[in-house]
Design a protein that fits this description.
The complex is a heterotrimer of chains A (401), B (308) and C (339). Chain A is of the alpha+beta class. Chain A has 13 helices and nine strands. Classes of the chains: A alpha+beta (401), B mainly alpha (308), C alpha/beta (339). Chains in contact: A-B, A-C, B-C.
């Protein structure tokens, strides 16, 4: 008669444990981070950019400093005149005619025949083919220039094999130089990859050094407290009351004799540790009051061990977040310095120098700025996304929610 | 309370002295004198020059001379522009820098803060996403890229803005936009996150529990608290912006102080570098000080003189 | 006596990106005028959410999913925010746990209090200031004429909580909800604050709902109590009766984990093993069954009905069912509570 369901469960403990799995701080943070789509996109992008910078340069046919005089200022997207099966002409802004395959491979440049140049009428003759067996290509740029040739809706004509073309009739992507070439005929893709490598290298080294200085300085200041803390923080206050960019510039000027790359790393490494030191000090102040520190010092654990074994691991969350944010700002500063001409010296190139170099030809060759600038933006964006995600994941205040 | 401000001013002066000293020492420790050129200057001329600028005197004497000059606001002669003083350079360059900076600051305050507030109030709504998308772009694109893009599109493609110079009102549009882009975005983001943080606070819940209207809760109770970190950021930002961004001035060919600074860096014009640095730093410290004082009006807790 | 507050079948959920968090699940209770009701439970049991639901202060992404709240004969759960603004602070007031963070730091006490008073009463600024000073005096703040110009950070924790109470009572509300009013305070201050609340309530005829996890506070202050767990009411009744004869294993567990003056010297405190249920995926049956020392099969399958132990005492536990095995101290075979 009695309902079977009214029987005590013998071992209720198992269920109890299963009711909610307990996660460690890092497991929980990782779980939260994985759920954050933007952060994961950021992390993925960072990995891709790293691969791009580290392995990219060795996958192209050119090195960052190779100057191909023949192929200057070629854009990534070519406007072409289709003239024959697998033969296209690309007329560049400086009146060179490039030979392009149907797929978009640029393989040669035609030289104007110096003997047949008519400067007055703006007519140029190019020879296509071998010395003995060639076709003439006639480029006539006189339209709307000469008083006798007014009122046309095109400015030039290209004549080849009896056919006259007045405007490009097709567009292809540049297969030989996907990002185009710069004013010295260097492959921009290779240079952007190389620049990414240099920029990231500077950023990572500078961040690591800043991290080291900041953590050591901050933990000593916070842990020792009292007069030492006051003195150390006064120094930080002074450094903080200077526009840091100014000091980086001054430092760069002071070391001018050395190699630009080393300079920029030293300059960035010696200035930006201040915020890290403040952060770590704040964490130390809060953490050292906790019982586990007291317990450790009671049983005689030496100071430095308490700091490195107990305190710093507990402050790791905010440290990592701030480190993630430091990298993009280092990229930023580096680009800025290179841009005003204080960065790495030629032929080495960072993303900032690439952007700077492209300035003079901006209106004619905007793509030369576009690719390095885009890469800078992507790097900064990716680190920002990851940093935001890490902050949400590691912030203990939000853990309850 | 007065003691607190006196202490702040004193510490600002000490900071300025330290900065001056450091800059001075750094400039003097650069290998090669200010007259080292690619084509060596004849020894005799060099000697006269060194004598003229008292460069043969011992370092400490030069230093004290410099500090003496500084007290009377005399930053010394320029080494590269013979016949001009650093004061002249600052007087001629600062107004242009300051004007652009001022416009940019106004733009930042009247757009950045309201956008941040709107974004926070409409959290996770389309307008929030739009504002944050723009703001993220704004802090992601470096100012020099922004400047070149403005030139490319507005001056080059569309031809509605002059590509350099600030001779006409339209000429200001480019530099001001490029200069304010980053900070505007940053202020919008900061205001938003600060506002969201404040809206989560217990005292906002208390205000609601006391039956205050939503309008009052937000525009009286939340905003005043939310602006505290924004004001903290604005101080140094205004200083940095008002004194001009070197890059923007270079790109738009604005005859400002930043341009002189970049030039003097190239020319190793030590007095100009030191002078402009000291001027920048003094201005910066002054702004931070002003912000601290303004702080006292917004945040009553600061009056205790407690430094966090 | 008539009812000041009736909560019928209240369910409140938070719709997070991880899913629906069912913070309060179908609770009903009521409060008489002049009563002091205690709601007890551990954190996450839904007691604060219940209070915020009454206040109409459930923030996005939370929502009152179901049920009705009747205050003073008027349904308030359907009112919009604007209408509720006129009730909050005037008819129903609430004070919060942490006085350190619950007062806006950038305004003076005067500023905060006068604003609330003038919001709900048509009085001059001068009159409002008088009311404010008067209330501060009532809550035992010395020299209120002077102290009212202070900022919150210039007050100690106990003083701030007094100021909070003074603000909450400034419009003589009919109901005061106190969410863990003493948790953040020193023990000596705790007793004072509770005393002030009790005294004031009787002076201005205010009913009080105290939310706490401290049974001591309940025993000291309240007439009735509700025990909540996992968003549900486990047991409710008069304080005397529940303390004398608790009819739910969770209530017993709570009591065993509190030190008692009359306990034998060697008696140990018994903690309740395990942790509170996940309200994202609440268990099908009784939320406490996973930690219950007397869990039965049925407990995990179905929530127990509410049994009426006596007139003022109900318990939602299967142990009351006739078929359940005998456990010492539990009264078996009660009727199911109809109301």
């Amino acid at each position: 008669m009695a309902d079977k369901r009214f029987v005590f469960i013998k071992d209720n403990k198992e269920d109890m444990e299963a009711s909610r799995p307990s996660l460690t701080y890092w497991q929980d943070a990782w779980r939260r981070l994985k759920k954050n789509k933007l952060a994961m996109v950021g992390a993925f992008t960072i990995v891709m950019v790293l691969l791009f910078g580290i392995f990219g340069p060795s996958t192209t046919d050119y090195s960052y400093s190779d100057q191909l005089n023949k192929f200057k200022n070629l854009p990534p997207r070519l406007e072409i005149f289709h003239v024959e099966e697998n033969l296209n002409f690309h007329l560049s802004n400086d009146y060179n005619i490039f030979l392009v395959t149907d797929k978009g491979e640029v393989y040669d440049r035609l030289e104007p025949d110096k003997n047949q140049r008519d400067m007055i009428n703006k007519i140029y003759i190019y020879k296509y083919g071998t010395e003995d067996n060639f076709e003439e290509v006639v480029l006539d740029f006189s339209y709307n220039l000469l008083p006798t040739k007014q009122g046309y809706d095109y400015d030039f004509t290209i004549e080849y094999d009896g056919v006259v073309y007045t405007q490009p009739n097709d567009k292809v992507f540049n297969r030989t130089f996907p990002f185009g070439t710069d004013d010295l005929g260097r492959d921009i893709l290779t240079r952007v990859m190389y620049g990414t490598r240099i920029s990231l290298m500077i950023a990572f080294i500078a961040t690591l050094v800043n991290l080291l200085i900041g953590v050591v300085y901050g933990s000593i200041s916070g842990f020792e407290g009292g007069k030492i803390d006051e003195f150390m923080m006064r120094i930080v206050d002074i450094i903080n009351s200077v526009p840091l960019m100014l000091y980086v510039i001054l430092l760069m000027v002071t070391f001018k004799e050395n190699d630009g790359l080393t300079n920029i790393i030293i300059a960035l490494s010696t200035v930006y540790w201040v915020s890290m030191a403040r952060l770590v000090r704040g964490q130390m102040l809060a953490l050292k009051e906790q019982e586990f520190v007291l317990a450790a010092s009671v049983i005689g654990v030496p100071k430095y061990k308490i700091i490195f074994r107990h305190l710093i691991p507990n402050a790791m969350g905010p440290i990592i977040v701030s480190m993630t944010m430091m990298i993009p700002s280092a990229v930023f500063t580096e680009a800025f310095l290179s841009f005003i001409g204080l960065g790495v010296s030629a032929p080495q190139a960072s993303l900032g120098t690439l952007a700077n170099n492209s300035l003079s030809g901006l209106l004619t060759y905007p793509y030369q700025l576009f690719f390095p600038a885009l890469t800078i933006a992507i790097i900064i964006l990716a680190f920002n996304f990851l940093g935001d995600g890490l902050r949400d994941a590691l912030d203990p205040r939000l853990r309850k929610g | 309370m007065n003691g607190y401000y006196a202490k702040r001013i004193l510490s600002a002066l000490i900071t300025l002295l330290i900065i001056t000293t450091l800059t001075f020492v750094m400039m003097r420790s650069i290998p090669g004198g200010p007259f080292t050129r690619e084509r060596p200057v004849p020894d005799e001329i060099l000697k006269t020059l060194n004598e003229k600028y008292n460069l043969d005197a011992p370092m400490y004497e030069q230093y004290f001379d410099y500090i003496k000059g500084l007290v009377t606001f005399d930053l010394g002669p320029s080494y590269s522009k013979i016949g001009t003083t650093v004061n002249d350079l600052i007087i001629s360059g600062f107004p242009a820098s300051a004007r652009i900076g001022l416009y940019a600051t106004i733009l930042i305050v009247i757009f950045g803060i309201p956008l941040g507030i709107i974004s926070a109030l409409k959290q996770n709504k389309p307008i929030d996403y739009l504002v944050m998308f723009m703001a993220t772009l704004g802090v992601t694109v470096p100012s020099f890229v922004m400047a070149t893009l403005i030139i490319y599109f507005f001056a080059g493609k569309l031809g509605i803005l002059p590509s350099f110079g600030v001779t006409s009102p339209l000429g200001y549009v480019g530099p001001v936009l490029a200069l304010s882009g980053y900070s505007l975005s940053f202020v919008a983001r900061l205001t938003r996150s600060s506002m969201l943080e404040v809206l989560r606070q217990d005292y906002i819940r208390t205000a609601r529990a006391n039956g205050l209207s939503e309008f009052k809760v937000i525009y009286k109770h939340a905003i005043k608290n939310a602006l505290i970190p924004v004001v903290t950021y604005l101080g140094p930002m205004i200083a940095a912006i008002l004194t001009g961004s070197f890059v923007i001035e270079k790109i738009f060919a604005v005859p400002g102080m930043g341009r002189y600074f970049v030039e003097s860096v190239g020319n190793r014009d030590y007095t100009t570098i030191t002078g402009i640095t000291v001027f920048y730093a003094a201005f910066y410290i002054l702004m931070v000080l002003l912000v601290d004082i303004a702080y006292g009006f917004i945040d009553p807790r600061i009056k205790l003189g407690k430094e966090k | 006596m008539s009812k000041i507050l009736e909560v019928k079948n209240l369910s409140t959920s938070f719709y997070t990106h991880m899913g629906e968090v069912q913070a309060v699940r179908g609770n009903s209770f009521s409060m008489e005028k002049g009563d002091i009701l205690g709601i007890v439970g551990e954190s996450g049991s839904g007691k604060s959410v219940t209070a915020l639901s009454i206040m109409g202060l459930i923030d996005h992404p939370g929502k009152i999913k179901d049920g009705e709240i009747i205050f003073n004969g008027e349904v308030i759960s359907t009112k919009n925010n604007e209408e509720m603004c006129k009730i909050r602070g005037k008819e129903i007031s609430m004070i919060f746990q942490d006085p350190m963070t619950s007062l806006n730091p950038v305004f003076t006490i005067k500023n905060l209090m006068v604003e609330v008073i003038r919001r709900h009463q048509k009085v001059s600024k001068k009159k409002a200031l008088e009311i404010a000073i008067d209330k501060l005096r009532m809550v035992g703040i010395p020299e209120p004429e002077k102290r009212i110009h202070a900022y919150p950070h210039e007050f100690s924790g106990g003083m701030r909580q007094r100021a909070m109470i003074a603000t909450a009572l400034s419009c003589n509300p009919k109901l005061l909800i106190a969410d863990e009013p003493t948790t953040a305070l020193d023990v000596t201050i705790q007793a004072q604050i509770l005393e002030i609340m009790k005294k004031l309530a009787s002076e201005i005829d205010t009913s009080i709902m105290i939310i706490t996890h401290d049974l001591g506070v309940i025993a000291e202050t309240c007439k009735h109590m509700i025990v909540m767990y996992g968003g549900m009411i486990m047991e409710k009744g008069t304080v005397d009766e529940i303390f004398h004869s608790p009819q739910h294993p969770y209530t017993r567990g709570l009591m065993n984990s509190v030190p008692r003056m009359d306990a034998a010297a060697k008696e140990r405190l018994i903690p309740i093993p395990g942790s509170p249920p996940d309200l994202l995926n609440p268990p099908k049956g009784c939320p406490f069954s996973y930690r219950c020392p007397h869990a039965m099969e049925i407990c995990k399958e179905e929530m127990a009905p509410t049994y009426k132990i006596s007139d003022g005492h109900t318990s939602a536990c299967w142990l009351i069912h006739l078929d359940a095995p005998d456990v010492e101290g539990y009264i078996k075979g009660c009727d199911i509570d109809a109301g």
